[in-house]
């Protein structure tokens, strides 16, 4: 059913009221000057989603109920983890000085792995609200997100949130903003998104400070696809920003990327639920359903145009680049086809995941998947389990190494000298290679100064090179390091957090490749190499890494009926060994007497435990061991 647009009125008393009586509102006459497209960007947990909720409530798009907390976080994993994974969009109507304004708000995720979502969201905007926590101040992702907006030449409105907190120090944060971003502190708005304090000021400043989009409605239709998701019944729902002309139901459109044409079945605004309309006009943000069957048909960054009026494609985005690769296998091979369909459906929705079929001796048929980062991988895994009820084994993640080949045979086989290796088991031998290259990142760490010494020693331990260090105020330091990606991908962030009592923050960006002296390290269980545990390690660290991996496997693999030798080897040379002693776990040992229900319960529990195990040869390995084996302890 079509819902009437809901309006919010601003009057001189800063009071808000809701009107629902303007059903016949004609967007074709709506002046572009009264449209504002903006994103909310911030470090994780600084309050983006809470502020979005308040803005939605104040403009009447949602009601003020407890149930509506973080309505833009729709996915189960988002609600459970309290993080935003997928950017969502909402169109709000707001009355200012007797005029109606259309404010298109795009909520974005804060975690480093999802900064790709941030960059595509802001490409549909003219301005951003940069939220900073009044207690924590500027954090690593605040800096990263600021630069995304700054480089896109957007207007930035700094908003200091959580001023209600006992330890809030908005003045200190304003000084940081002035020092680090060169934005006069007078431009900051102090709010409490939780209590709603001063939030109406944010709406006012959006209208006053952000420029309207400068698009021509008389020009041919041209729209940027900035997000897309898959609906089982209706196919692809593409989120679009109209940069020119208008689009109507029934129009035939073409995707510039694939050159395929489609008929528009439905289009409308997101408020934040879909609100079908007859037309969308330049300057608006909305959704389009046009019979596309796969998300790949609505490539993020693609341009849509009218079949009869071809236009030049808009500059797209840098394609998302997978930074972490891992094998994914069904717990039980008989579930392969169920898992295949689940992976297909989930990747339909997340085009930043790369998928390649793969198979392994021990784990059977599966896939090698590429992710933007480890959290992205964990979220994908969790969604597979929760939304598709699929049980999977994820192998140790690896970063994409490169090798410059010297062997004429291999060069001929690959058709080129430089190859990228996303599976350590396929790492070419040193004798066939001129040089190995490893991916590097520039990391930004922001921390209270008392932790600087500890953090520096951990960075050194992880082969990082310091680039610079500045004080952002009298207590906080911002450090830049060049890191090998491999050194930070699995557990660096957790260590940084724990060693700084949660105060340090970290963000990184791609810094190309650098020559590296790396070797392939195999792990053997009872003499049998386990491909899925193969890793690439720096040559100087091979012994300590091998020893640590054997120790962790010794902890992770439960004792079994026979002794298990865990060995690390480089080529034919074993460099470390641990032994898991034989042991038989009789769960009924302490169960005296004839209480049969208790016995059955214990046996069931043991059977469930076994389901989480996987046979590698004769050895049972818990499924988590594959990932946990890489998590190290920094001194
Ligand atoms: N005291 C106080 N807490 C707030 C305020 N705004 C948000 N919070 C709390 O801060 C936490 C994080 O808020 P979110 O809105 O989820 O933050 P976010 O930036 O959207 O987080 P991500 O989407 O994960 O990046 C929640 O527990 C909120 O209740 C505020 O103004 N005051």
From TrEMBL:
Cell compartments where the protein resides: Mitochondrion inner membrane
Keyword annotations: GTP-binding, Hydrolase, Membrane, Mitochondrion, Mitochondrion inner membrane, Nucleotide-binding, Protein biosynthesis
Family matches, as InterPro entries: EF-4, EFG_III/V, EFG_V-like, EFTu-like_2, G_TR_CS, LepA_C_sf, LepA_CTD, LepA_IV
Pfam families reported in the protein's UniProt record: EFG_C (PF00679), GTP_EFTU (PF00009), GTP_EFTU_D2 (PF03144), LepA_C (PF06421)
Membrane disposition: Peripheral membrane protein
Record's catalysed reaction(s): GTP + H2O = GDP + phosphate + H(+)
SUPFAM superfamilies reported for this sequence: EF-G C-terminal domain-like, P-loop containing nucleoside triphosphate hydrolases, Translation proteins
GO biological process, one term: positive regulation of translation
GO molecular function, one term: GTP binding
One Gene Ontology term, aspect cellular component: mitochondrial matrix
Keyword Kinase: no
Binding site for GTP: 42-49, 107-111, 161-164
Domain Tr-type G: 33-214
Function: Promotes mitochondrial protein synthesis. May act as a fidelity factor of the translation reaction, by catalyzing a one-codon backward translocation of tRNAs on improperly translocated ribosomes. Binds to mitochondrial ribosomes in a GTP-dependent manner.
Family under the similarity heading: Belongs to the GTP-binding elongation factor family. LepA subfamily. Belongs to the TRAFAC class translation factor GTPase superfamily. Classic translation factor GTPase family. LepA subfamily.
Protein name: Tr-type G domain-containing protein
Species, as recorded: Umbra pygmaea (Eastern mudminnow)
